[in-house]
């Protein structure tokens, strides 16, 4: 048997370090042009192999890719993907403005251009239209052109009617909704979305259906048509196979609808689901901030105070500054501070569309102030309540105090003849009767404990007597068994009485 040569330990360590270095080396990032061409190849592969996972792989890179492209990259991509005399190529190049010099941060693929030999599949055309549409929406002067491209893309997509285009269609509908919204014509797109939603529901196109339901809900909420939005939710079923991003948007819109309808518990649940399903705050800061703004207001309307750590989040700290001031005013029960904060940040609340909800917090602030007064005074006049809570009249104070007593916020009664409020003894205060009852309960528990300890006491060595008795019984059994075996004892000895 031949000997095996063993490598030194140092050589093994060097090989392991080399392998670790190879693993740690990051893959070089593709240029935007090369990434678009690779995505086009993946779309071709998805259509030829009937594998939608390749299309989903392409769409996962859409958010990061559209931030790295410009019109020069898009023009080069169209020219390199399509043949020279392709009519689709001429049509796509017509939507791209004249060439602009590339910026310093943009990387352009300098590899030699290869002339394609075949026309790409229609999915590639819709994907390039989607990229062009997103880039047109980055500049305000291109909004009319983007809206025209969006309408033409929808017509092209509906005329092709290819099921392999369903995943791309969901992204296209979101871009179309964005183009109409930025062009201030979102109401005009509602019939288009409703007709497309019916078609996708009949075709069981779950991805496009989820996207269209969110587009319609956003259109209704944008124009304060909450009744129509609620009817749409009750008449449709959101696809269970939709992505987390679509579910997050859907729960966010549901939370806003329920909050306006005074259904705060359901609104809180939906907004919580939207936060859990949404991407991290660093990836989607705008959506993350918008959801938390409504989440804070709904928690306040429910009578809860949001966690202070929420306002220290790096993504939310600046965006929720005005809402933190509102939380402090509600917590202290100061109506004057609440009104000052509301007027100070009214413009921001109007922009966030939370002003009408925050105005409802006035009753919560008054209830908190009345609760503080009931704890501080055993008797206080309605006039003093008006002064301390900055109410308009004594009649308002009497109505608010009466409602607080009826709702169980405070314990007390209103003396109309003398014009004051008498606060009852709070349940959590220890009076003489409560102390006496509490002492009796403690004495009973201690007595029960002592009796239990006494019942568990046994005489010493009592178990040894039982062991001796058991051993004697075993000896007698052995003797009886031995006598029966030897024939010395008959069975009659065990039954001395007849008939037993």
Question: Can you give a write-up of this model?
Answer:
With 500 residues, the protein is mostly helical. Helix content is 65%, strand content 2%. The chain contains 24 helices and three strands. It has helices spanning 9-24, 32-49, 52-60, 62-65, 71-81, 87-95, 122-136, 143-160, 166-182, 190-203, 206-222, 226-235, 244-260, 264-277, 285-301, 321-332, 335-344, 346-352, 355-359, 361-376, 382-389, 394-407, 432-455, 462-486; strands at residues 379-381, 412-415, 420-423. Strand 2 (412-415) and strand 3 form a beta hairpin. The longest helix is centred in the last third of the chain and has 25 residues, at 462-486. The protein is flat, with a radius of gyration of 39 Å. The relative contact order is 0.04. The model is unreliable at 101-112 and 496-500 (pLDDT under 50). Pfam families: PCI, Rpn3_C, TPR_PSMD3_N. InterPro entries: CSN3 (IPR050756), PCI_dom (IPR000717), PSMD3_C (IPR013586), TPR_PSMD3_N (IPR057985), WH_DNA-bd_sf (IPR036390).
Topology, pairings included?
Blueprint: H1 9-24, H2 32-49, H3 52-60, H4 62-65, H5 71-81, H6 87-95, H7 122-136, H8 143-160, H9 166-182, H10 190-203, H11 206-222, H12 226-235, H13 244-260, H14 264-277, H15 285-301, H16 321-332, H17 335-344, H18 346-352, H19 355-359, H20 361-376, E1 379-381, H21 382-389, H22 394-407, E2 412-415, E3 420-423, H23 432-455, H24 462-486
Antiparallel strand pairs: 1-3, 2-3
């Amino acid at each position: 048997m031949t000997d095996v040569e063993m490598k030194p330990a140092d050589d093994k360590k060097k090989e392991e370090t080399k392998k670790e270095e190879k693993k740690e080396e990051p893959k070089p990032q593709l240029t935007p042009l090369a990434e678009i061409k690779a995505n086009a190849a993946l779309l071709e592969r998805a259509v030829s192999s009937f594998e939608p996972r390749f299309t989903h792989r392409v769409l996962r890179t859409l958010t990061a890719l559209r931030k790295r492209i410009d019109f020069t990259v898009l023009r080069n991509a169209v020219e390199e993907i399509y043949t020279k005399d392709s009519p689709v190529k001429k049509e796509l190049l017509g939507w791209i403005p004249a060439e602009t010099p590339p910026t310093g941060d943009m990387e352009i693929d300098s590899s030699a251009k290869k002339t394609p030999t075949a026309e790409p599949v229609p999915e590639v055309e819709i994907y390039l239209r989607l990229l062009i549409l997103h880039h047109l929406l980055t500049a305000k002067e291109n909004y009319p052109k983007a809206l025209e491209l969006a309408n033409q893309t929808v017509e092209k997509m509906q005329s092709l009617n290819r099921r392999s285009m369903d995943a791309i269609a969901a992204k296209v509908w979101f871009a179309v909704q964005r183009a109409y919204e930025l062009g201030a014509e979102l109401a005009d797109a509602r019939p288009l979305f409703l007709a497309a939603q019916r078609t996708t529901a009949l075709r069981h196109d779950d991805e496009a259906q989820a996207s269209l339901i969110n587009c319609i809900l956003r259109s209704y909420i944008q124009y304060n048509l909450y009744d129509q939005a609620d009817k749409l939710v009750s008449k449709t079923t959101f696809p269970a196979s939709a992505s987390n991003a679509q579910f997050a948007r859907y729960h966010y819109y549901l939370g806003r609808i329920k909050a306006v309808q005074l259904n705060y518990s359901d609104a809180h649940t939906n907004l919580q689901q939207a936060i859990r399903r949404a991407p991290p705050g660093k990836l989607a800061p705008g959506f993350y901030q918008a959801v938390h703004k409504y989440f804070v207001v709904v928690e306040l309307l429910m009578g809860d105070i949001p966690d202070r750590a929420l306002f220290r989040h790096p993504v939310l700290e600046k965006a929720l500054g005005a809402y933190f001031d509102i939380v402090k005013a509600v917590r202290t029960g100061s109506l004057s501070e609440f009104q000052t904060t509301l007027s100070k940040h009214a413009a921001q609340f109007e922009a966030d569309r939370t002003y009408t909800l925050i105005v409802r917090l006035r009753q919560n602030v008054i209830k908190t102030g009345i609760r503080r007064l009931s704890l501080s005074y055993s008797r206080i006049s309605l006039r003093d309540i008006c002064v301390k809570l900055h109410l308009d009249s004594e009649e308002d104070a009497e109505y608010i105090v009466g409602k607080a007593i009826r709702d169980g916020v405070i314990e007390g009664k209103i003396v109309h003849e003398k014009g004051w409020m008498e606060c009852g003894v709070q349940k959590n205060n220890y009076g003489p009767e409560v102390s006496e009852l509490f002492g009796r309960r403690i004495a009973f528990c201690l007595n029960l404990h002592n009796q239990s300890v006494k019942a568990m006491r046994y005489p010493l060595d009592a178990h040894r007597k039982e062991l001796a008795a058991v051993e004697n019984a075993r000896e007698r059994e052995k003797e009886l068994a031995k006598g029966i075996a030897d024939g010395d004892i008959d069975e009659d000895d065990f039954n001395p009485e007849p008939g037993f």
